[in-house]
Amino acid sequence: MTGPKIALAGSYRAAPEGATDLGDVDPQERITIVVHVKRRTPDQYQPGSAGDLARLSRPMTWETLAGERRRTHTRAVKRITDMAIDHGLTIGRVDVVDRTVTLQGTARQMSEIFGVTLRTYDDGQHRFRARVGQLLVPAEIAPFTRAVLGFDQRPLSVPVDRLQSFAGAAGPGLWPTDIAALYGIPLDRDVSSVCVGIVALGGGYLDSDLVQALGAMKRDPPAIVDVPTDGNSFGGGTSMADQEIALDLQVLASLLPKARIAVYFAGNSIDSLTDTIRQAVFDKVNRPQVVSVSWGSAEKFWTPDERDAMQAVLADAKRLHVSVLFAAGDELATSGLSDGKVHVWFPASSPYALACGGTQPTLAADNASIATETVWHQGLSGTGGGISDVFPVPDYQTGLALPASLNDGAVRRGVPDVACAAAANPGYRIVVNGNETVKDGTSAATPLWAALIAMANAQRGAPLGFANAALYANRALFRPIVEGNNKFNGRGYDAGPNWNACTGLGVPKGSDIIAALAATPVA
User: Fold this and answer.
1) How far is CA 293 from CA 132, 328, 369, 418, 476, in A?
2) How far is the C-alpha of 237 from the C-alpha of 242, rounded, in Å?
3) Residue 428: helix, strand or coil by DSSP?
4) Which residue out of 272, 349, 350, 443 is catalytically annotated?
5) CB atoms within 10 A of CB 398
6) Torsions phi, psi of 28, nearest 5?
7) Which of 131, 105, 108 shows the shortest CA–CA distance to 118?
8) pTM over cut 0.90
9) Which of 167, 335, 347, 413 gives a 20 to 30 Å CA spacing to 356?
């Protein structure tokens, strides 16, 4: 028998759109969940407000944070573990510092304890488990429960048709080092002191691809560390996820010779993405200073409790001076949805994220410089960007002429923050399964920007961490993109001088930005 339960605010999950319901999950299936723990006292500040960013900027080491969390969260964590023992669940990893408790049990146990409905679905590409309806949390742990993740495995979809559409239509492409040179990003910096993390969902990579690509660019290889976060295997393949990882890894590896790159592998879902970023932020072995994430989805697909769990992780990243960068999406202002609204991606829209948009550079006659540069918009593809439906204007965006949301006329957090080349032409030349191919996407712009911040960290001798405030305070370090739009069927935003909802502050003046960030005091 289970005791009284309380509905977990913000946990309602609708059934997956466009997927076939295959019925109940096997009641004996073993399910691993992660309970994200919170204090009873609600946060005092709005996310991204001046007070919020100030409190997250207090001098903080992992050891200091650990001491604070043991004082503030030990009681809450014990409530969770006591509940698990009472209900016969297996207790896995318990971490007071990152505020999580991992539990395992059968689907039948989980349904009884959390009042959860679990169904199996097929969307034509994936067969997956999904949670439908509201979570009902045992009353004794309800005040201390931020979110319960792990039930839902619906994929963070990558539009396969779009990613393949330019395979035969793109030009020869430029190697990532050539694209970096277009922005004056130096290629001779000593970055051996820096570790950068890549979050890789649902696939692997081939060492031979990386060796071939770096050889073509005449670059020294970095040290690659594979970090499995939920039992996923590594290796090459032909899936889109493998192409995504190849792109992220080859951009970073080519720009950061002799650096250490930690690749965090996990399943392709919101729950797994949150847990993987949490593990990267709190990785005491590799200690990445910068984490590049090319994944996300429209804010509407994240329940409030899921967003809250990710927000807590990204707030801790700010506390621990870890820069986390996210792609702004590749399906224009609507995020590929047909509901008549515009949508920005989350976690890119988090006030704690550096969101990366995309541009379309046109090369000059020398093929080594940019003649003109506009918003990336090619057919159905192009940079995401717009106004958040969820987050208020963060302190670092106050004073900007942010446009009103096309959904409700309100002014909130603007996305993206920065941009660089993302179009299929000229495109990023990479190697996948032994073959050179040309890739596009804000998922290429994101690791390029991550490399920029890593170079600044190496020069300053310490991690900068949250870079948004420093970047917004130095707008002269950007070249604004003033032409183009990210509209689909007339819905979207225009480029323009200063910040805009297509390319943010603009594209980097590479070495100038590195110097400015390197000289920035720790906030």
Assistant:
1) 27, 10, 28, 15, 26
2) 6
3) strand
4) 443
5) 12
6) -95, 0
7) 131
8) yes
9) 167
Which residue is catalytic, options 248, 305, 373, 440?
A: 248
3-class DSSP assignment, residue 63: helix
Q: Is 193 exposed, middle or buried (0-12, 13-18, 19+ CB in 10 A)?
A: middle
Q: Which two tokens stand for residue 523?
A: 């906030």
User: How far, in Å, CA of 158 to CA of 516, rounded?
Assistant: 35
3-class state of residue 68 by DSSP: helix
Q: How far apart are the first and last CA of the chain?
A: 51
Check the CA dihedral 253-446-284-149 and report its sign.
negative
pLDDT tens-place string over residues 79-128: 999 999 999 999 999 999 999 999 999 999 999 999 999 999 999 888 99
CA distances from 177 to 323, 386, 432 (A): 22, 30, 17
Cα 294 vs. chain centroid, distance in angstroms?
6
Tell me, what's the pLDDT at 462?
Answer: 94
Q: For residue 23, what is the enclosing H or E element?
A: strand 20-24
Which entry of 52, 95, 152, 244 is annotated as an active-site residue? 244
Q: Could you write out the three-class secondary structure of 360-414? A: EEEECCCCCCEEEEEECEECCEECCCEECCCCCCCHHHCCCCCCCCCCCCCCCCE
Answer yes or no: are the C-beta atoms of 492 and 334 closer than 8 Å.
Answer: yes
pLDDT for position 202: 74
- Verify whether residue 443 is a known catalytic residue: yes
| Phi/psi at 330 (5° precision) | -125, 15
What tens digit of pLDDT does each residue of 127-171 get? 999 999 999 999 999 999 999 999 999 988 544 333 433 333 456
Residue 244 among the catalytic residues: yes
